[in-house]
């Protein structure tokens, strides 16, 4: 299989979008390198689809520019950018067969019938749809339709693939299967991809880099591991599944460890050189990083409380434990726990993140 038609070595964005006096993208700056899989992640309305549509050329930025290999492309219409797009709703031609849907873009090019067939067949094989050539979209499942949409975009060898929530119409099981396929195709063809989703698990599993947006502002950009383990603020931590947040005042900092007091507890975290005594901060920890002691142990680091709610999750359970009048802690554990049990909790120092107060 040939590589992408025109090369992409780098894509550089610096874009602002306003509708009236509402800013929906506030100087979003980003450098994307060849071969990268970058995900725009964030809640509904954060501006991720708008950013993707601006890259695609479907809507114009209010200010800023897009540079491909150093040259501006923001004045080019979508077809001149030669980017591939896959949307949430597939957007297949309903009256055309699978083969004709996939080969459509090729028929607009000066290619022989044989060449078109060869490239279409190869692409259908890649998305595992060999044998479905003569079917119509209405005769396919959602996952199959989405694979046709992906094949239709890829057959043109786009230098950049843009995916806008391509899996949100699929059921949970198919979503997980399809995301593995997308990842495999991205790697096999050496694509450069931008992917929009509000699903953090999808972003973590697919991306080389996640760009997290809130109200059009970039909150954090980093590898899945950085975003997952080291969120920089409460918004990112909350979005990435931290469920315990304690408002604390820093009581001491020594040897790179800060002790915070607040919400009726005392908790410690590793601290950078910029953390000062007497400042208000937030300490956060994931439910699965808290250790549950089988019995109540006393000591400065430990707290204990009564189980108020247990959510069954299959192999594990997530439980809300009331540790004082104002504070509940969410714990995830494979141990059997029941409502009204009293259990001891520990917050491992390396798992607690220290965040600026909101
Ligand atoms: N044509 C428009 N006119 C005015 N406001 C708009 C327009 N299009 C989008 N917006 C606003 O811009 C913001 C960002 O929208 P966008 O669709 O990019 O969000 P999103 O993060 O992709 O959300 P979702 O996941 O719900 O699609 C929203 O507040 C939306 O209401």
Automatic annotation (TrEMBL):
Family named by the database record: Belongs to the ABC transporter superfamily.
Cellular component annotations (GO), alphabetically ordered: ATP-binding cassette (ABC) transporter complex
Gene3D superfamilies hit by this protein: 2.40.50.100, Nucleic acid-binding proteins, P-loop containing nucleotide triphosphate hydrolases
Chief place where the protein resides: membrane
Name of the protein in question: Spermidine/putrescine ABC transporter ATP-binding protein
Domain ABC transporter: 6-240
Membrane topology (UniProt): Peripheral membrane protein
A UniProt-annotated Pfam family: TOBE_2
Protein role: Involved in beta-(1-->2)glucan export. Transmembrane domains (TMD) form a pore in the inner membrane and the ATP-binding domain (NBD) is responsible for energy generation.
Record localization: Cell inner membrane
Organism: Tardiphaga robiniae
GO molecular function annotation: ABC-type transporter activity; ATP binding; ATP hydrolysis activity
PANTHER family registered for this protein in UniProt: SPERMIDINE/PUTRESCINE IMPORT ATP-BINDING PROTEIN POTA (PTHR42781), SPERMIDINE_PUTRESCINE IMPORT ATP-BINDING PROTEIN POTA (PTHR42781:SF4)
Alphabetical UniProt keywords: ATP-binding, Nucleotide-binding, Transport
